[in-house]
């Protein structure tokens, strides 16, 4: 067997947009959502189905800003580069913003927003009940709520995580526990994430809606196998502040190298 590997140094880009918080007591408690931009092939499902849903959320936030709405906490939307090569873009950004992420409320990962007909989700333990409560408020195109359909599907259909029907130990839906394999990993494994027995600072959630559901918070429930590459890369981060309707945007950039 003859293997050829491209080990050239590359520049990668993280693109982030922020809406500043207005509550002095909470504005530094960030709410972060993100998805990677790179793909092994065309990326229709992984990652761009999740990016499409995330950008719709961005459009909704933009409309709210035009109406005068302002969040109490800072909202940060992130487009990561070089996820497939080893979560490089999100990891570099998390390391650069470790101090701020120590106060983050949550990170929502939107990788693989559509993956078949059934809704599925995974989260850290502190967010599992939150995910259940949200799905009880969202209508399912199959009738009833997303929660009700999710519960029925788990009893009869295989999930991406288990490949077989879930045998729940209680009457509630089963939610997987996140491990690694997508860009939520840096948020849950840096100092921003506490040990399981302490109060959570930056919990993460990963949700995959059905291809027909109308929910707007998609993510990959089953992290793909963690991949590695001998390809070194440098990473750069470009951030822009989303303006109010009367102001103009500003852009800053910084670079960090990882080899």
Explain what you see:
Mean pLDDT is 74; it is low at 191-202 and 207-259. By secondary structure, this protein is an alpha/beta fold. Strand 2 (31-36), helix 1 (48-66) and strand 3 (75-80) form a beta-alpha-beta unit. The protein has 6 helices and 9 strands. The two termini are 27 Å apart. It has a single domain, classed as 3-Layer(aba) Sandwich (Aminopeptidase). Helices cover 23% and strands 21% of the residues.
Task: Give the structure's gist in a few sentences.
With 259 residues, this protein is an alpha/beta fold. It has helices spanning 48-66, 88-96, 98-101, 125-135, 146-156, 185-189, and strands spanning 10-19, 31-36, 75-80, 106-109, 120-123, 176-177, 204-208, 233-241, 250-258.
Give the tags.
259 residues; alpha/beta; Aminopeptidase; nine-stranded mixed beta sheet; 6 helices; disordered C terminus
In terms of topology, how is this protein built?
Blueprint: E1 10-19, E2 31-36, H1 48-66, E3 75-80, H2 88-96, H3 98-101, E4 106-109, E5 120-123, H4 125-135, H5 146-156, E6 176-177, H6 185-189, E7 204-208, E8 233-241, E9 250-258
Parallel strand pairs: 1-8, 2-3, 2-4, 4-7, 5-6
Antiparallel strand pairs: 1-3, 5-7, 8-9
**CATH class assignment:** Alpha Beta
Oligomer: single chain
Low-confidence stretches: 191-202, 207-259
Major β-sheet strand ordering: 6-5-7-4-2-3-1-8-9
């Amino acid at each position: 067997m003859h293997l050829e590997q491209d080990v050239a140094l590359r520049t990668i880009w993280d693109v982030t947009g922020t809406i500043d918080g207005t509550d002095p007591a909470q504005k530094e408690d960030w709410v972060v959502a993100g998805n990677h931009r790179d793909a092994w092939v065309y990326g229709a499902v992984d990652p761009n189905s999740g990016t499409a849903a995330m950008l719709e959320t961005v459009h909704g936030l933009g409309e709210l800003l035009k109406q005068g709405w302002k969040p109490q906490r800072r909202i940060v939307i992130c487009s990561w580069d070089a996820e497939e090569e080893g979560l490089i873009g999100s990891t570099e950004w998390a390391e650069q913003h470790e101090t701020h992420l120590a106060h983050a409320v949550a990170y929502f990962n939107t990788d693989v927003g559509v993956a078949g007909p059934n809704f599925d989700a995974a989260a850290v333990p502190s967010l599992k009940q939150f995910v259940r409560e949200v799905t009880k408020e969202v209508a399912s195109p199959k009738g009833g709520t997303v929660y009700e359909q999710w519960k029925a599907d788990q009893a009869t259909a295989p999930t991406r995580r288990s490949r077989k029907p879930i045998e729940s130990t209680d009457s509630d839906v089963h939610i997987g526990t996140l491990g690694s394999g997508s860009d939520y990993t840096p948020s849950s494994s840096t100092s921003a994430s506490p040990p399981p027995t302490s109060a959570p600072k930056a919990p993460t959630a990963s949700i995959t809606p059905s291809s027909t559901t109308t929910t707007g918070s998609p993510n990959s429930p089953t992290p793909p196998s963690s991949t590695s590459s001998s390809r070194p890369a440098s990473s750069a981060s470009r951030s822009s502040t989303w303006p109010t309707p009367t102001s103009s945007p500003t852009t800053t950039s910084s670079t960090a190298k990882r080899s």
